[in-house]
Amino acid sequence: MQPGAGKQVAFYAPMKPPHHPVPSGDREIARNLMDLLRSSGADVQLVSDFRSYEKRGEAALQTDLRKAAEAEAARLIREMPAADLWVTYHNYYKAPDLIGPAVARARAIPYVQIESTRAKKRLTGPWAGFAEAAHAAADAAAAIFYFTGQDRFALERDRCGGQIVAPLPPFLPLEDLPAASSLDGPMLTAGMMRAGDKLASYRIIAQTLAHLPGDWRLDIAGDGPARSDVEALMAPFGGRVRFLGQLSREDLSAAYIKSSLFLWPGVNEAFGMVYLEAQAHGLPVAAQNRPGVRDVLLPRPYPDPEDGAAALAAFTAGLLASPALCSGIGREAREYIARNHLAPAAARRFWDIAAPLMETQR
Hints:
This protein is of the alpha/beta class. The protein has helices at residues 25-39, 59-79, 100-107, 128-140, 149-157, 197-211, 227-234, 249-257, 273-280, 308-320, 323-340, 343-361; strands at residues 8-12, 43-46, 85-91, 111-116, 143-146, 164-167, 187-190, 218-221, 241-245, 262-263, 285-286. This is Glycosyltransferase family 4 protein.
């Protein structure tokens, strides 16, 4: 019998609901988590699309969101269908779970979190109240699953009572590996085009290309409000850089299959689903050695960010110059993803922790 068979799971994502119209890694992960639990036989319901996300640090808006959250929690306590488990994805200081602990407590069901962040430095400043709320929600969790070692330290340091803190490595919603790349096409980059960290990664890519020798080509998959900025960064390289636009999952998979390597520096990425996708297709990855990113990359030396774009260019050039090396890395990457980052392994890890909690709660 599947471990989640017959279980009723209430799912909630305070930052961005899975049906949100704007694509992002956060939305994709929420969707993948719901599919993962369903694949284990559970009946998973998105019980609320209330967003607590407050990006500017405005106290008045946070007060309004708290009031709205109280009303939403009261509604769910009255109206939510019976559930065996509450799962909250991505509780942090800009988007604390303001409803899950109250509803789970009122309904007497276990409350767990996936990817929760404890940030003590935010307990002062414009998000202080929201940071306290995120900590309180984390304290209420019977178990917290973390994706990367970057989050583990703070979660274990601030563990509340007998709370379980357990790894749930990032995963692809696949039972088996997709088709392998031919490794004979252009390089591929895939990332949202928006200001901040994403644009910073594109800026590093442009600097890297300026140092990159040989007859290289690069395809870029993605779109967003900063597209004109990205186009300006890539303009010096003319026709060697091609913009594919925003791709569906199927079209992005086809792009991986036709590429030679995946290039993405990973500035402040929590980990990056694109790294899992690229490696599942057997692409070697040119990235920088950054926290979070290194947790999902095939273990091997990667250039450090402080060594700059020239080091990333040299690393990339070494891959492009050796098809045999790329082929070997690609095979190892696929084996690495199959062992650690596909849905069956993730489901086992989750239910090994969650199932006993539901039995205890009875």
